[in-house]
């Protein structure tokens, strides 16, 4: 049986960590589910940095500190893989971003795209609908869309 | 099933207790002959092996009011 590789973006990290986030319930339920499964969890340094800023702004510095400590421990124990974007990968992402005419896609999306390619990601754990562009299933699926 | 393995921490350097799950599973009784292979595990590796997935802690992060 193939082990699924799941990329967790900043919107998902923020929703998991911030109890006041509108997607907190959906994020926590889905996160608990993927922790129970055998999925390989992947993120990248730009997604973590962005999430950290959002969590600190929305949930306070103590929650942000705790979040970062858990992520550091998880990376150390290989329960989470963090893709580090090197100078070359950043250049790839910048080139794609500058060529793109898609109005909704930001530079951070192309950083995620670099990790998707390198880590052979199967699903995206995100609440950012713009990531639909990369053709992978976005989880968790909402029953009602606004 | 004819064999089982387990990881334990030595309480003294000369005695090892076989966990009941293993004796029950292998139906071991007094007088049975067993083969013992000892392999020292570096403590860091053992800690990693037996620790729970730390990501579970994210499900119970303390909340606090926004400071902005």
Which structural class fits the helix and strand makeup of chain A? alpha/beta
Query: How many DSSP helices of chain B?
Result: 2
Order of strands in the sheet with most strands of chain A:
3-2-1-4-5
By oligomeric state, this entry counts as heterodimer
β-strand amount of chain B: under 5%
| Gyration radius over CA of chain B | 20 Å
First-residue to last-residue Cα separation of chain A: 36 Å
Which sheet architecture does the biggest sheet of chain A show?
A: 5 strands, parallel
| Count of separate structural domains of chain A | 1
Order of SSEs of chain A, N→C?
A: EHHEHHEHHEE
Largest interface between protein chains, with number of residues from each side: A-B, 26 and 17 residues
Strand content of chain A: 5-15%
Categorize the overall geometry of chain B: elongated
Number of strands of chain A: 5
Taking the sheet with the most strands of chain B, its summary is: none
Number of helices of chain A: 6
pLDDT < 50 runs, ≥5 residues of chain A: none
């Amino acid at each position: 049986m193939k082990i699924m590789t799941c990329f967790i973006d900043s919107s998902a990290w923020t929703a998991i960590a911030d109890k006041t986030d509108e997607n907190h319930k959906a994020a926590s339920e889905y996160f608990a589910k993927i922790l129970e499964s055998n999925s390989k969890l992947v993120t990248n340094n730009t997604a973590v940095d962005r999430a950290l800023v959002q969590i600190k702004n929305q949930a306070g510095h103590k929650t942000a500190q705790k979040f970062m400590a858990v992520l550091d421990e998880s990376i150390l124990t290989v329960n989470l893989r963090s893709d580090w974007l090197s100078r070359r990968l950043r250049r790839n992402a910048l080139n794609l971003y500058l060529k793109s005419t898609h109005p909704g896609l930001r530079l951070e999306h192309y950083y995620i795209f670099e990790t998707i390619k390198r880590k052979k990601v199967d699903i995206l754990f995100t609440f950012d609908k713009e990531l639909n562009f990369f053709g992978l299933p976005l989880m968790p699926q909402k029953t009602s869309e606004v | 099933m004819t064999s089982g393995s387990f990881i334990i921490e030595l309480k003294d350097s000369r005695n090892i207790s076989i966990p009941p799950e293993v004796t029950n599973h292998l139906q071991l009784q007094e007088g049975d002959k067993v083969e013992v292979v000892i392999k020292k595990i570096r403590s860091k590796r053992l800690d990693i092996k037996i620790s729970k997935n730390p990501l579970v802690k994210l499900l119970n992060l303390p909340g606090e009011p926004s400071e902005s």
